[in-house]
Amino acid sequence: MVTVDDVEAALSNVIDPELGLDFVELGLIYGIDIGGGNVHVQFSLTSPGCPIGPQVTEQIEEFVSELDGVESVSVEMTFMPPWTPDRMSEDAKFALGY
User: Is the pLDDT score of 44 beyond 90?
Assistant: First the structure.
């Protein structure tokens, strides 16, 4: 059965093209819910005007669906709560000079 850790590892392949860091390290993954083989991922972007939303949705679906035991993937983009740099990992903060 797929785990949250498995999904986070898959999502580490989703890279923000402007920042060069993955969505997990950037704190842009807001939630992962697993029910059997169904995975729901909630994510955000650094700003509502960011144009990469459709690309990110496709990448999340692609990488998570490749995991053993995953039957379906649903993706939801949200801006509540708004993303802030405080959500980033310490490594990401260091890499970006925060």
Answer: yes
